[in-house]
Structures are given as C-alpha cells and as structure tokens.
Amino acid sequence: MPLVIEKKARNLIHPIDRTWEIFRFCPHRLAANIYLGCEFGCSYCFARAITPDYSGVITVRINAPEKIATELQKMKSLRHRQPVDLGSATDPYQPIEKHYELTRNVLKTFLRKNARLYCY
Ligand code: SF4
Q: For the segment 63-105, what is each residue's pLDDT rounded down to a tens digit?
C-alpha cells in the first residue's frame, strides 16, 4: 500500500508543459491531475521522474471536483474552453480512486459544465 497524502489543491487545470519531450506533439494545451503519483508504477512511465517515490507516495487532491468546477466556470474565452487532459501525469483510475471517487465526480463536473476533456 502506498503512503497517501491528502491535500487541497490551489489550482488544478494548468497549461501543458511543452518543455517535456513527451508533450511536444500533444494536441491539447491544458491538463489536470487529481492524483500525484500512481500506484501502478509502470517501469516505462515518464512521470516517474516527477517525484522520487512516484508509486509509493500518492498525493490526493481532495478538493478536485469543487476546484475544477470553479476553474471551468472562470474559463469563458474560447481559448480556455479547450479540452482538458485529465491525467497527463498519472492514472486517474488507479486503485485509490475506488475509495476517493474523485475522478468519477470530476467527470460529472465536466458533464454538468458541458466542458470537453481527454481521459485515457
Ligand atoms: S501513469 Fe500510467 S504509465 Fe504511469 S505508472 Fe500510472 S498507469 Fe503506468
């Protein structure tokens, strides 16, 4: 079992960092990660470079549904209405999601706000 740290995020939707080679050719510009770290810990995962113990310590942004609802509300311009990559650096459906159900509730928020996203 990983160590779980619950945190309230100050912001969630952010521009993709194109200085990372893997994101250079991504079609989307915005991303949001509900979790930081991933229990699956795949050996080929680029995101393992983000934190020293990527699969052993999972940070849970416990206010993700409310925060994303607020951020989507503020995105009024066409530029900001672009699809959001939900889980650019972690798996939003990793095992801990069964307990927190944050991804499930964030998806409901996107649906309510008629906002588009990528989730893969
Ligand atoms: S984010 Fe994806 S590739 Fe990386 S460890 Fe999790 S499941 Fe594997």
A: 999 999 999 988 876 555 789 999 989 999 999 999 999 999 9
Sheet of 57-61, strand order: 3-7, 57-61, 35-36
Of ligand 1's listed atoms, the one at least distance from the Cα of 41 is 5
Neighbours of 82 (CB within 10 A): 17
Report the number of distinct structural domains present in the chain: 1
How far is it, in rounded angstroms, from Cα 73 to Cα 80?
10
Q: How far apart are alpha carbons 84 and 78 in whole angstroms?
A: 13
Report the predicted TM-score, pTM, of the whole model to 2 decimal places.
0.90
DSSP-based three-state secondary structure for 33: coil
Calculate how far, in angstroms, residue 41's C-alpha sits from the geometric centre of ligand 1. 6
Quote the domain boundaries for residue 105: 7-33+62-118
C-alpha 14 to ligand 1 mean position (Å): 20
Share of the chain residues as helix, strand and coil, in percent rounded to the nearest 5: 30, 20, 50
